[in-house]
Amino acid sequence: MRRPAVALLQGYVQITQTFTKFVTEIQTPLSQSDGRPSHSKGHMNRRTFSKLAAMSLLASRIPKATARTKAREIAITMDDFNWQNAVYQSASDRNKSILKTLDSHSIKAALFVVGRNLERVEGKQLLTEWDKSGHLIGNHTYSHQNLHSPTMTVEEYTNDILRAERVLSEFKQFKKYFRFPALREGDTAAKRDGVRDFLAKAKYRIGHVTIDTDDWVITSRLTERVKSEPAANLKPYRDFYLDHMWDRAQYYDSLSNQVLGRSVKHTILVHYNLLNGLFLDDLISMFKAKGWQLIDAEEAFSDPVFSEKPKVLPAGQSIIWGLAKANPTISRTLKYPAETGDEVVEQMKKLGL
Ligand SMILES: [Zn+2]
C-alpha cells in the first residue's frame, strides 16, 4: 500500500518466475523430476499446451524492462571510517572482518573517509589496509560538516573538503569522488550551486548514494544492547538489518524504474560500524541470493545517473530520490525517505530490539 510500485514490480517478478519455473518443468524430463523414466519427453499434451499459451500471453504483457531477467547491479559504499567508535569488536578486528568479507566476494567497495579520522596513527594504519586491498578511497570532508546549517558557508565547506584531500592524497587508492555528509547538498540555491561549481572545477565527481538506508540507527541500538548485555542474541538484529536493507533496495530500484525507466547501477549506503563488522557478509550474500549482482564501486559510478544534477531544494538524499523530486508528476506521490530514522526506531522497539 505504502509502496504500490514495489508491489506491482513484485507481481511482475512473481509472474516471470512462475513462467520460468513452468517452462523449466515442461522441459525437464520426468526421469529428472520424479525419478521415473519418461515416455513423453519432448511432447506435451493439449492441457499443457494451453497452459503454456496462456502463460506466454501473460508474459508478453509484462513491460520489457521487467520481463528481461537482467540482474540488478549493486556496489557497496561505506561512509565515515569512524574507527574510534569500535565496541564489541576491536577496531582492528572490525577492519579485518569488513575487508575479508569484501575480498571473499571479490568486490572493491568505496570508502568515504572523514579526514579527522586520520589524525591518529592507528587510523592511518587501518586505512592503509584498505589502500593495499585496492578499494576506492573517497573524500567525505575533514570534519563531517553539515551544509544545511544556517551558519555554514560555501567557503568554509569547500575548505573542509580541501583539508580532507590533503590527508587523503597520500593513499594510492584516493580518487576524487566526494560524498556529502548526511547526503545534504545545500538548503539554498547559492550553497547548492556554489559547492557543485567548486567540485566541478576541482575535478571531483559526486559519489551519490542510490539506495539510502538507516543502518546507522540500527547500529546505534545494537551498540547500546551489546554494551548492557554482551551475551545478547544478535541474530534478531541481523535479521532486522537484512529486511531493512532489502526493503530500501526494492523501494529505490522501483523508483529508479519509475523515474528513468531502468534500474541504475546501484550504490547502497552503509557505514563503517559494528553492524557491518558483524553482518556485511550476510548482507552481500542476501543480495546475491535474491539474484542481484555485486559490482565494484567504480563500475557503479560509471552509470550516467551519477552526472545528474537535479535542481531541487533542499538538495541531496539519494540521487534517484532527487530526480524523482524534480519530476512534477512523480514528486506528488513521493514518500520522503525516513532520514530521521524515527520510523526504524519504532519498528525496532516493537520487536524489542
Ligand atoms: Zn557521513
Based on the structure given, which CATH architecture of the largest domain is correct?
A: Alpha-Beta Barrel
**Annotated CATH homologous superfamily of the largest domain:** Glycoside hydrolase/deacetylase
**Cα distance spanning the termini:** 25 Å
Beta percentage is 5-15%
- Mean of residue pLDDT values: 86
Structural class: alpha/beta
What is the element string, with H for helices and E for strands? HHHHEHEHEHEEHEHHEHEHEHHH
Provide the helix percentage: 40-55%
Number of helices: 15
Give a quick account of the main beta sheet: strands, pairing sense, barrel closure: 7 strands, parallel
CATH fold type of the largest domain: TIM Barrel
How does this structure look, described?
The protein has 353 residues and is an alpha/beta fold. It contains 15 helices and nine strands. The strands form two sheets. Strands 1, 2, 3, 4, 6, 7 and 8 form a seven-stranded parallel beta sheet that branches. The chain has a two-stranded antiparallel ribbon with strand order 5-9. Helix 5 (91-104) links the parallel strand 1 (73-80) and strand 2. Helix 10 (235-260) crosses helix 13. The protein starts with a helix and ends with a helix. The structure holds zinc ion. Zinc ion is lined by residues 79-80, 140, 144, 181.
Structure in a nutshell:
This protein is an alpha/beta fold. It has 15 helices and nine strands. It has helices at residues 4-27, 30-33, 46-60, 64-67, 91-104, 121-133, 154-168, 189-201, 215-228, 235-260, 274-289, 297-300, 319-326, 328-331, 342-350; strands at 73-80, 110-113, 136-139, 174-178, 184-186, 205-206, 266-271, 293-294, 315-316.
